[in-house]
Amino acid sequence: MARRLWPTDGSIGGEVEDDRCDDGGGNGACDRPRAGESFYGETLGLTFLWETPASVRFRCGDTSELSTFKRPPIGTEHTLAHFEVTDIEAAVSELEAKGVEFIDYTEGSLVTTNHIAQLGPARGAWFRDPDANTLGVRQG
Question: Which helix H or strand E contains 96, and what residues bound it?
């Protein structure tokens, strides 16, 4: 069984704040469901809930859920879901150790240092799942 990336007991990687995964749930297209299931379950440590012919559902935190849909990817330029963490450096390090590649920004109003951008009082870092859906971790 996969270990949760952000367990609620505050151990490695911080914790999911307010049991939130973005706005209480997230959705992404997944052209390769097995790759998506491995990424969300093993790499991110989310708990597999169930699978239907149309989607795969994961637990995210104590009460939120995230679905990936079995369909061709839909090109988007925005973050589809983010995970609230209490220690963004630890979360980024843990994900990098699992092979996650972060998106770095060097121009404009969003600039990253060590993959992390300052967003007013908050900080964020972004990465993509196997189907190029943009996800993020956020602290603050």
Answer: helix 88-97
What 36-44 contacts at long range (C-beta under 8 Å, 24+ apart), as own/partner pairs, is 36/68, 36/129, 36/130, 36/131, 37/68, 39/129, 39/130, 40/66, 40/68, 40/129, 41/2, 42/2, 43/95, 43/98, 43/99, 43/100, 44/5, 44/83, 44/95
Q: How far is CA 98 from the centre of its chain?
A: 13
> Strand pairing of 25-30 and 64-70?
parallel
Residue 122: name the closest of 136, 132, 134, 135 by CA.
Answer: 136
How far apart are the C-alpha atoms of 47 and 87, rounded to whole Å? 21
Q: Which two tokens stand for residue 109?
A: 């109003």
User: What pLDDT is stored for residue 34 in this prediction?
Assistant: 52
The residues with which 48 forms a beta bridge, in sequence order, are 58
pLDDT, one tens digit per residue, over 3-57 is 334 433 332 232 233 333 433 344 444 444 455 678 888 899 999 999 888 888 8
125 and 88 Cβ atoms separated by less than 8 Å: yes
Domain boundaries, the chain: 17-139
CATH class belonging to 17-139: alpha beta
